[in-house]
Amino acid sequence: MKTRNLPKALAWYWRTLPRIFFLLFLFIILFAIIWSQNKEECLQMGKPGLTTFHATAGEEETAGLEAAVCEMPPNQNFTVKGYVIDPLPIPYEYLLGSHPTRKRYLSIGISSIHRKNKYYLMRTIESIFSQSSPEELKEIVLVVYLANNDSTLNKQTVKEIKEGFSSHIDEGNLLVICSSLASYPSLQGLQRNFWDKDQSVQHRSKQNVDYAFLVNFCASLSHYYLMLEDDVVCANGFLSIIQQFIRERMEHWTTVAFSMLGYVGKLYHNEDLPKLARFLLLFYDVMPCDRLLELFHQSKAQKEIITFRPSLFQHIGRISSFHTMETIFKDPEFQEDFGDFGDFPAVSCYTDISVFDDYVPEEVCPPGKGVFWGRNVTSGSSFTIVFETPVILQKLQIYTGSAEYKRDILYSGYVELGTVKIKENVSATCKIFRRAGDFRNGKFELDNFGQVMGEQIHCLRIQVTDTQKEWLIIRKINIWVKKG
Questions:
Q1: Which of 34, 355, 366, 395 is 20–30 Å from 64 (CA)?
Q2: Residues 482, 84: Cα–Cα separation, whole Å
Q3: Residue 55: is its pLDDT beyond 60?
Q4: Under a CB-based contact definition with an 8 Å cutoff, are residues 371 and 393 in contact?
């Protein structure tokens, strides 16, 4: 059997071997061609127009590693400044106002989405302007970026802003802008990194892009940029306080927080805004904006956030920008009034006005850590301040209402000075009172008490003259007394 199969085996080998040798020959030819081409490229490395760089790892190491780099002609269409450092060429539409003719000290950016149930933008704009002096307004430009997907809502908002703040628009203090959603990156099929629903991921990603477009626009408007939301109120004279902080801050900083809440009240150098815009766009679909802002200052070697206390901005919104549910976030560090608060004589405070919640008279009694909030304010109601020892007044300031509850002021009333202190059950008052002056627009201010009463007093009393439907907030009582 073996002898019969031998011819067949030999015939198979003679047919197969030529094929194998032919394939091997083709492989050798191809290898030779490739090697020849690479050799020619290597020889070209030493020709003029090319530069060879030598790299050494140390004096004791062999300096034999050489790398050749081709000299490329410069690209006239590319510059690092234009493509990386300057603002992005995003298309914007001016809905109200025009680009300022001069650079301001501070630009304030607000990205606004219309809410179905409550809309706080008008109150926020009003607070910014009303809490700034005429001199401060010259150094401010407010930019409102309308991020609605509906042009009808934008037109409606523009109409309301124009009707309420036309003078500020004419003076160049207010701009309203928008941009096309066609310029936005995709908001569909985004990765869920925080166990959010798809809609929540889409909303927070769009918010990142909204803020990126806003800060990019503001880059050239001013020296410093302040980020706010569309549902906040401001402390009185907030710009002057920010200016003083910047003057006194000698160390390098990237971000300063003038509020404890999220991205409210965050201050930046305008030169950093193009970088911030790119940063927000780079990670727009990764995490929420407040977290990205933290990573931004950390990436610029500011490890911890620099926080100014007390806070200059308070959140008033109760309806989320992207939800119908109520969310209440309050900054416990917020303080509306700043400056000289006078002296702190030992006093006790009493009232016959119904107290709301825990806003008792002691909260506003000098030195005053809070506010008094009362309801059922009727004619004849009073709020009395009793001094432990008699004093001679020099100056008095009493402020009612607040930035958040502007209607809760004393509409009709006056201040009395009392003598001859007496006890009344668990409280105290004075037997004789003399009228010192009236409240105007919820405020009482009197500097020259020597002309009213130069003698010692035991009491101050706020007297209500007309019943009012609004509640009453007494937020600040500043007292100056004669020394010695």
A1: 34
A2: 62
A3: no
A4: no
